[in-house]
Design a protein that fits this description.
repeat; alpha+beta; elongated; Immunoglobulin-like; 6-stranded antiparallel beta sheet
């Protein structure tokens, strides 16, 4: 007769250095079987839910259940706290959706709203038939389910396309396996969903002039976070978007033109200063010496200009014997007598 045997092993005082692979090995007369389980130790994160309970206006006689984490078991033991159970359950979820775990534990559909922090129709009934299982899912989920994404923002890329960006969740960001982006027309129950592994997504095929609501969730195979606070946006039509785009382009052109004009003025100023300094050096007349005390009176000396070459033809040419052409004349040139410090300079 087939039979099923369930065995369990409880490890106490488990530490981080105990993490690793554990092998379960079974053998009987019919054969052997084994399975390997990898165990990883994560640091326990404690969340202070007292602020949440204060915002939810939990009564003073039940406020002690929110000192560090929500102690649902303590609240269940006090009849005066039954009226606050919806609020306590909301804080106990800590921004996560635990319905997957609750369903696996057989929590009735009428009580599943507590698993995501929403009010139920009959709190006393859910306390009796599902409270313990719901609390167990809360404890399991806090260690592995990510919280909601942060800083959700929307930017329009073109008349029918927007880009959605967000930051990783504060709770368990290392366990995020995917993000789920959900949007719908304002006032409509029809939703569109897209899933991505990155913290950015482009939403296309929007209708210009229509207002949309959009929110994001983070999740993994253990469960999903609560949704972010929805953002509203209106898709701009072609003319409006192009008008804004043209305005931005005009501003950019004006900025670039201003920069070019300033650079041109600077170059002109620098060039003008350079030319003035150069002309000032070159426009001085007469004889110039570095030491004026050696300037002598000019003496007229006869200086025969040597034959010059023009276009590769010697000007001595026709008369030969080194004599000058009758058309050429001797020129008297005035020059300064050389001194000990520099060579003569022709004027």
């Amino acid at each position: 007769v087939p039979a099923t045997y369930i065995s369990s092993l409880e490890l106490t005082n488990f530490r981080s250095d105990d993490a690793g692979n554990f092998v379960c090995y079974a053998e009987n007369i019919h054969g052997v079987a084994s399975v390997t389980l990898h165990v990883q130790v994560e640091e326990l994160t404690v969340y202070n839910t007292s602020v949440c309970c204060q915002k939810q206006n939990v009564s003073q006689e039940c406020r002690h259940t929110c000192s560090v984490d929500v102690d649902i078991q303590a609240a269940l033991g006090k009849p005066e706290c039954v009226k606050d159970l919806d609020k306590l359950m909301f804080c106990a979820t800590d921004g996560r959706d635990h319905r997957k775990c609750c369903k696996s534990r057989g929590v009735p559909k009428s009580c599943l709203k507590w698993c995501v922090g929403r009010p139920v129709f009959s709190a006393p009934m859910c306390v009796l038939i599902a409270a313990n299982d719901i609390v167990s899912c809360f404890e399991e989920g806090k260690a592995v389910i990510p919280g909601p994404p942060e800083n959700l923002r929307v930017a329009q890329l073109s008349p029918r396309v927007i880009q959605v960006k967000w930051d990783p969740p504060l709770q368990n960001p290392q366990f995020v396996e995917w993000y789920r982006v959900i949007w719908k027309r304002e006032g409509s129950d029809s939703r569109t969903t897209n899933q991505t592994t990155k913290a950015v997504l482009q939403v296309t095929d929007l209708t210009p002039g229509i207002t949309y609501q959009l929110f994001v969730k983070a999740g993994n195979h253990y469960g999903v976070s609560d949704k972010t606070k929805p953002v509203k946006f209106t898709a701009s039509d072609d003319s409006t978007f192009l008008k804004h785009s043209d305005a931005a382009a005009d501003i950019a052109v004006k900025v670039v033109s201003s920069v070019v004009a300033v650079a041109f003025v600077i170059l002109l100023t620098a060039g003008g200063v350079y030319v003035l300094k150069r002309n000032k050096r070159q426009t001085s007349t007469g004889v110039s010496f570095e030491n004026p005390t050696f300037l002598k009176d000019s003496i007229s000396l006869q200086n025969t200009i040597p034959p010059t070459t023009e276009a590769g033809v010697d000007k001595i040419g026709e008369l030969g014997d080194g004599q000058l052409d009758s058309s050429e004349s001797q020129v008297n040139n005035t020059r300064a007598i050389s001194n000990l410090y520099e060579e003569p300079k022709h004027i």
